[in-house]
Amino acid sequence: GAVVSQHPSWVICKSGTSVKIECRSLDFQATTMFWYRQFPKQSLMLMATSNEGSKATYEQGVEKDKFLINHASLTLSTLTVTSAHPEDSSFYICSAGGRVEGLAGGRQETQYFGPGTRLLVL
Amino acid sequence: DQQVKQNSPSLSVQEGRISILNCDYTNSMFDYFLWYKKYPAEGPTFLISISSIKDKNEDGRFTVFLNKSAKHLSLHIVPSQPGDSAVYFCAAATGGGNKLTFGTGTQLKVEL
To answer: Is B90 on the interface with A (CB under 8 A)?
Structure first.
């Protein structure tokens, strides 16, 4: 199956600093990538849709000036948390759209998820 | 407004038995549904999906059932194995697999 990587896997930073998270699709080209965040024991919440070569589309309630998204190539999208504060501490996950082969054959549309980045802001 | 709901936060099943995970949705525009498995500190892994034109899709030990009139879907795992222990998320989308709305997850524990 397709592989999506994220870097770093975890980061601890001081309040007020900016943190950049990279999301790469390793073996396929992704014109669209998605950024989610997950608080402990809660669902994954879509933050924004990242489109290659154009501006990201943010979900309601997500500050676009705080969570900067850049999708400069078909294999790389970055999320920068600017002036991070403790309330930004969360698990951030990216995904890229694609198709997957089922166990019994046939192809299904899905999203491939990265392993996630744990951000802790002190 | 939680458009996709998984009302059971946890489920415990014996090895070899069937695991049934349930999911309800409120948005009638959803036409594509997916199930993901997630381990702690990892990204979700795709399991199986179903389009709204079908009411059942089977893939190995996993079967998803969709009841559009009830806005309900379920994931059946049989036989359940200890390695199936994880958090299971259902997700819904309109017009294919983009822009997923996730449920709150169900922690499945398969006991020996």
So the answer is: no
